[in-house]
Each structure stands twice: as C-alpha cells, then as structure tokens.
Amino acid sequence: MWQINSAVQGGEKLKKFIKGLSALSIMLTILFAVSVGIANYFTPNSYKVTAGSNLQWNTGIVTAVTENGKEISTGLCSVPNKSYKAQLMLYNVIPIKTVKVDVVKETLVIPCGTPFGIKLFTNGVVVVGVADIKTSSGTVNPATEAGLKVGDIIMAVDGKEVNTNAEIINIVKKSQGKKLNFSVLRDNQKLSINLQPVKSENGSQYQAGIWLRDGTAGIGTLTFYNPSTGCFGGLGHGVCDSDTHELMPLLNGDIVPVKISGVTKGQEGCPGELRGYFATDNPMGALKVNSNEGVYGSLNFSPKGEPLEVAMKQEIKAGPAKILSTVDSGKPQYFDVQIEKIDYRKDVKSKNMVLHITDKKLLDATGGIVQGMSGSPIIQNNKIIGAVTHVFVNDPTRGYGIFAENMMTVSQNNLKSSINLKAS
Is 83 labeled as catalytic in the residue annotation? Predict the structure, then answer.
C-alpha cells in the first residue's frame, strides 16, 4: 500500500513539474516575442553610416550583419554612396528585422547657437478665423456658408493668384456682391469654393467674413551652417500659425540679425522666452524651406567656428552633452545637459530626444529651456547630434531635441531641389 501511494505521489509531482516547466516555457516564449516586438518597433528600418565607420548601436545590445553574415564594419562601409541590406541582431543572436544601410560621406558643419529673426511670407493666404456680419436682412457668415474652414489656404480668387491679405480684401470690395470662386488648399487637397460677399448694415463695402494671415515674424536660434553648400538650418521645428497651429506655407522670407535684450524665466505651467529685437532690416540670408524639421535657407556669409561632424542617430547615447545657445547680449555659450531618452521611431519628426538642463548658470538665467532657444545645437563626443526644439510646459528644465541627421536630410533635399529647379 505504501509503495502504491508513493508511486501516485511521485506521478503527481512529475505532472506538476511538467506543468510548471510548460508554463515557464510559455512565459519565456511570450517574453521573447515581446522583446523582439519592442526592439522591432523602436529600431529604425534604415540607417546611414559615414564612410569608414561601423554601424554601432548606442547600447551595444543591437548589432547589424549583412545577409551573408558579415558584420557591418569599417571594411564594408569604406566607399560612400553604397547601400547594404542588413539584419539587426538582438544580443548578437536573435534576429529582429532586415534594414537598409546607406554609406554616406562625412558631413562637417559649423555649430552656430546664434539668435536670428524670421520674416516669413506665405504661399497663398491662410484663413485664421471666420466672422458673422450683420446685414440689413439679418446676421450671416459668408465664409461658413460657403464651406471655408480655419486652416484653409486661399491660393487664388476667380483664377487670380493671391498671396496677401490686401489682394483678397480688394477683390471682395470690388465684387459688387457677385459670387467669387476661391481656389483653396486643405490638407494638401485642392478645393473649389464659391463665396457670396455681403454688405454690412452699417457699411458700404462688401465683406467675406474671414480673418486672414499672409506672413509672420519671430525669433529663433541658428543650428548649423554648411560651408560646402552655403546653407543653414535652424529652429528644429516648423514655423506654425499661432491660431491654426498648422505649418505656414512658405512663399519667401528673410532672416535677419537679432539682439537679445532680456529673458523671461520659465516656470512650471508658464514657458519663458528670450526677449529681443531685429538689429537691422538688412537680411543676412534667405529663407527657402519651412518644414516640420525646421527652417532652412542660404546665408550671405560664413559664420566663424570650427566645423564638427554630424552624428548619425545610432551614435547618440543617453548621458552628458552640451547645448550651444545665446541667452544674453553676448556670444553663444556652452551649457551642460543630460540626454535622458532617445526615440528612434521614423514617424517622430522633431521630438527625438528628451533633454534635461543641468547647468546651474543656465538655470539661474532662464529657468531652463525658453522660447527662442529652439534650434540651439546639441553637442556630444565632439559631434553635432541635434538641436533643442520644445520645452515641457510643466517642467522648463526638460524639453525635446531633434536628430541632426533629420535636419541634414531636409537641408540636403532642399539643396537638390534648388539645383534641379535651376537646371530646368
């Protein structure tokens, strides 16, 4: 009887052991799948490496090998303008995904950190509001009735191209109440909208019931100057309309020198700002691109400074870095920061890093990151890794930064577009 009971107990223990082993196996399988999934989500599908360098991930956890098993190394990446397909490997063992690796020439740019003024004139006219109009027959809203919306860009009226508020106002005044055809751009879609101007009960002129904007001005910081192309990059984020919060369509614009006259310190819930004024109306450069990744154009002179290499995104590491910024009437200064987080996702345009200001001098002067510092270059390991873009409203000591690689891509694409336009 004892032997039988012992056998039964032994069998039950074995069953429990097998069940536990199965549960552990399932758990490990889930953890493995989750790890690979997370690594796949947070790693880009394409990389750039400078000729003669390795594809090295900042943590050392992820490596890359070509399809035939050779590691992406100096030997393979010695010739610019070549591309490879490679396999990202987690812990050198677990395959994550196949990626594209482009070998590019080393890019040297001069870090700036100098304030500049922006004068931007729109391509078309932006609708920033609509208004009711009291007429002899009641209150009407011609813009809303026609289907115009805030954020629409009016490109032409009755076939005539318009780029200023005055042009549209003049056409409406002379309409004599006849319907006007507005050619509108909305979410990159072209629309045709018919609007009926009306005359207010207390006025003699026809109105359309729309508030318009045809330009803007502001202060930011230059990030870099490329001496080989004569092009600059700045802000690290686009110039958006203050009412619609949409990217303003650029027709043309100038950048001008700025003098910083004071600082409003940032506080929790209340972002600070650099106060300044345009030192002259004489342009120091031309504005050619307004994009989600910043503003770009040409400079009329070459800034002084030692050129630094532009770092690729995978070279950036969490840890100490410096920003170059101007927060008083003097020259740009270096301030200490910490890179706390890095986001490699492709769809993240300008919030690629989280920065923490640790420099006591800067904290005493500004409270952290303030408006006007956008574009301040970020330096790590003697390379430009990015630029300051945004401040956290509830914590001015922290903010976002954009990859310098992202800014260079926009700048270089802009240069190619300019060359193609000249050639045609």
Answer: no
